[in-house]
Amino acid sequence: MKKKLCSLLLAALLAMAVLSGCTDGTGESSENNFSAVVGIQQDIDSLDPHLATAAGTKEILFNIFEGLVKSDENGNLIDAVAESHTVSQDGLVYTFTLRDNVKFHNGNAVTAEDVKYSLERVSGLLDGTPLVSALSTIKSVDILDEKTVQVTVESPNTELIYSFTAAIIPSGSGEEEGTSPVGTGPFSFVSYTPQEGIVLKKNPDYWQEGLPYLDQVTFRIVGSAETALMELQSGAIDIYPYLTDSQAQTLKEGNTHQVVASPSNVVQALFLNNAVAPLDNVLVRQAILYAIDKEEINEYVGGGTGSLIGSAMLPSLADNYVDLNSVYGTKANVEKAKELLAEAGYADGFDLVIDIPSNYEFHMQTGEVIVEQLKAVGINASINPVEWDTWLSDIYNGRNYTATISGITCDQTPGYLLNRFQTQSSKNFINYSNAEYDEVYLKAQAEQDMEKKAGYYKQLQQILADDAATAFLQVPGNMTAISNRLEGYKFYPIYVQDMSTVSVKK
Amino acid sequence: MAYLGKKLITLIMTLFLVSAAAFLAFQIIPGDVVTSILGTEATPEREEQLREELGFNDPPVMRYLHWVGGLLRGDLGTSYRYSKNMNERMPVSELIGDKLPVTLWLAALSTVLIIVISLPLGVLWAKSRSHAVDAALGVVTQTAMAVPSFFLGILVTYCFGVVLKLFTPGKYVSYRQSFSGFLGYLIFPALSIAIPKIAMTARFLRNSMLTELGADYVRTACGKGCSQRRVMYGHVLRNALMPVVTFLGMIISEIVAGSIVIEQVFGLPGIGRLLISSISNRDFPVVEILILYITSAVILVYFLVDILYRVIDPRISEK
Fold first, then answer.
1. CATH number, residue A200
2. For the domain B99-312, what is the CATH superfamily, name and number?
3. What is the bridge-based pairing of β-strands A216-221 and A197-202?
4. pLDDT band, residue A383 (cuts 50/70/90)
5. Is the ipTM of this complex over 0.85?
6. Three-state SS string across A439-455, please?
7. Which label site among A42, B4, B79, B174 has the fewest CB atoms less than 10 Å from its CB?
8. How far is B58 from chain A (nearest CA, A)?
9. How far is CA B245 from CA B239, B252, B294, B306, in A?
10. CA distance B211 to chain A (A)
């Protein structure tokens, strides 16, 4: 009997060994040298480029779709499906001339008809539902000739051109885009499995000569943020853009990956509800800003990779950015904070609950540091973790909170962040209200001269800082791991994973 | 037959109660599905359109009845979160049908591992007269039981994946691509699930056998001249297995219901992972069906255990 049992055990072990041998076998054979795997954290919300809203989806779809114009790695717009474009003097008419050699992944050349269809679909002219809110200002899309499309808008807005990055899709394909997306980008769609990932392959007809280099790119959803490190080490994923500070340290020791820090396009802030006591008092808000030590937060939470900010603008948008870190300092000024609190009648401090979306470890850790910093000036702060969905519905849309830590992901338009601080803005979840601000914002929006416009934007940032509208903290750094076998990965000031320039080292 | 009918009624009643409770829970927990799907940049028109499309403008009771009605007609509903294309949402049956094989195969593999290893181990342990073996097995099983499954998963990944390179962590092979590759990857998560359960079962069987060994009938059997082997496997093991089968039933129902943590650690796209993401996405139709699946899986396994009792101990069905 003993023998029998032993042989049974042996057989089980043998079976395991054989089976695991199989994985190795298939793993090796499917290993294509000219392919890369990118680790992603969330599932895709839609394959339809006009319906996708999550930043985590758009960063992938950037490889499949292109608009008339697209962003480059310096944050500038370059012509993509369009060969050139002009805007009329009054800013109401946009004329796009299409490239000759742009083909969809299905082999058909892009025609003016396709452009008209795509723009009408996103602007809501097709069925009354605008899919990109900024483009709902489009009044008409007219085909002038085979290669020229004219777009007329209701009111001038110099930043509208950024919205023409909206994907161009084949005419009439709207219903199929969600299952078999067809675009003009460097990679074409192969397959998507919910909860697993998405596979793309090289578009041989891509209009940019020589690109892309890779034959196949897979975006694979990692098991969890914690196991991502092991998946990198084992080679299951080649590129992973969301390393934590400690993971980055571990990887650096291993010498198998490059770890590169780049500025993200997220503005992290302790948002203060300007309509709720005691934060409706400007002195209290100023006291909080003085109490916060941004350098300490950057050091503890981001390993020093973030850039500190004093107002609502990304430093990467250099023409429009003004450094306002000096207004409240980057280090804590406990004396000043206590003084202001006493002046406001809160010499003994007060209780402050900070709601934080708990799925964001980064914001949670920031919260822990801030709680201590506020305690130092007598404000009895505490953290209330909330789920992301709750944050969206109760805090962002419901504005039912006192203070919250979160990040706002910005696109390239400098006005994007400033727009939400207008009194009437539906996105003004901090309930900020300042008549002067509203007035300057309107002037900025109507201004056609870019230099003057930037001047207005700087003025707006100054007003926000003076009013201590919200405690802007930092633009956190993004830590990306890239396998040593790859090269050519480009960092963008916006949230995209451009795989077209990535190649395997020779 | 009457027994089967009774079980079936219990199953239906339980499912009904559980589904109502889950529906209620989803009414209470905060978070708006529409804003969650569309994000912060949604236009009000789009929000309203989606609200209408998902039927949120109907009163909750109507929605529940509508859902139950669909279920009775065999329609499991459609996901809020996943869509096939612009006009068609992903049917829940398709979404779950795609993930179920992963969880079921994982469950099957771990069950085989548990039974094949723990039963012989338990018997050998009970038979062993050596104090050293006894003490060593005691410590090993105690440790295996105490390690949290998340950590065990990481340990297994580290040992077999990073050090021994027997598999590539995170490089899950879909069963649609290569079935042998799929099973080969699944062995390791199955092992992570099995290790603590093997320890528990072996311990349980050993204790149960030791208790039985002290019983009067063992002395009688020995006295009337039965061989030691016959006493051990014909009488003691058979009796000792009864409580172990109940215990195994509990364990297996737990595994079939999905090992959420292990699926997360190994990046397996199974039921557990789908459940987690569906709850945080407020994808109510998917969560409801998953809960119903888990409930039925548990009840079904217990039912099978009941039948197994009758096989091991025929006296039960006579009662």
1. 3.40.190.10
2. MetI-like (1.10.3720.10)
3. antiparallel
4. very high
5. no
6. HHHHHHHHCCCHHHHHH
7. B4
8. 19
9. 11, 10, 20, 9
10. 22
